[in-house]
Amino acid sequence: MVAQSNFESFTPSPVKTDSTPAFQEDFFKTSFKPQAQAVEATSLYFRPTDAPPAPAGIDSAAWSQVSEWTAAGKDVKFTTADSGQVPDYILGSDGKMAPNPAKTTPNPDGSITVQVDNSQGKAAAQEHAKALQVAAVQEKIFYWQRANPGSDSIPGYLKGMLHAAQSSAPDVAPAPENSVQPMPQIQQEAPQSQPSGGEIARPQPASYSGGGDGGGNGGGGGQRLGNSNIGEAPRSGYRSGSLEAGGPTERGAIPPPVAGDLAIKGPPSATVEQIQEFLTKVGSPAAKEPGFSQALYDASTERGIDPAVAVGFFLQESTCGKYGRAVENHSLGNIKGRAPESGGTDGTFRKYDSWAEGARDWARLIDESYVQKRGLETMSQVISVYAPSSDGNNERGYVATVKGVVENFKKQNTATA
């Protein structure tokens, strides 16, 4: 048994169900947010009968998987969409865990990141993530004690990890000793003043999500996967803010592209069918609108934009319409003013009659305001204006999310070629 000294009970406090407005029902009813499905066990693993009780809010199959990772020496980090990290798995409100289809490469330090979503909103998701992180460290301590039956004390580094899990902010998972540390995530702020006119307003730092000029859902319950990952939505969940009209217009002010950048315009990396399949997997309400995937594809390709890039933005901004203002406004990214086609507005941001209308307006804005007006051609250049780090956004995280979606589609096409 784990020493009880100064440690909390192994049973985490149950997640409150009466917290703040629902923001994340599920990022993927999971995180960068697909519909959560039960984890498909890759091996039959049975937790020891004397292991600590499984925490609340996660089903037995999912926790057995976490326990198996822990027993194998892997570090498991529980976060929410606000963390800005692209998760390996998403834990839905139903307690089931599913792989994140947008994650194409493992974490450099070998850790496993699990995004926690909660239908009760941001506060509930953060509380649950914290409880699960504490339980994960306790699981690590349990396995250490089994491997060292003669010891009556717990190593200092494990005590430090437990203390950090119990006292740190929900999206700051304790890092193991002597392991490679992930790049610090910049928290995105709450929206600050928005520019006037019809362009997208800039989100304010809150927790990482996308942010900046660009999308992000302004109101609603929580911040996002961005504004990223796939927080509120992630932040790939949801971002409070809107695309901003301001930004460099002089060619000399355009930032140079970064290594490994992604072009905004180019041949399509995804077909209409693949877009529909992806949106369905992440539980996007737009997937239920007849003809939306075709409309998004057409709106993008008619302007030379890779439709996979549009899907990546949609995922980063509101988890493909699952969180924030996007739910009611049918927007791929908040844009101030009135919708040019239907004239709709929620009082601040454009409100569209359909997801297809929102896709057409987003493509118009990116092409006319960012590419043509400003001369921005790559993801890093657009995000430096759309979701700048000066506003507390993680530009690299945003770019990585969109690029991950595009590369995932390309990989599918390569495999079937």
Q: Would you mind describing this structure in some detail?
A:
The chain has 417 residues and is mainly alpha-helical. It has two domains: 182 residues, no CATH class; 166 residues, Orthogonal Bundle (Lysozyme). The protein has a four-stranded mixed sheet. A hairpin with a 5-residue loop joins strand 2 and strand 3. It is elongated, with a radius of gyration of 21 Å.
Features:
10 helices; mainly alpha; disordered N terminus; 2 domains; 417 residues; Lysozyme
Task: Walk across the major sheet and give the strand order.
Answer: 1-4-2-3
Structural class: mainly alpha
Q: If helices are DSSP runs of H or I spanning 4 or more residues, what is the number of helices?
A: 10
Q: What order do the helices and strands follow? A: HEEEEHHHHHHHHH
Strand content: under 5%
Largest sheet: 4 strands, mixed
Number of domains: 2
Gyration radius (Cα, Å) is: 21 Å
What is the arithmetic mean of pLDDT? 71
Number of strands: 4
Percentage of residues assigned to helices: 25-40%
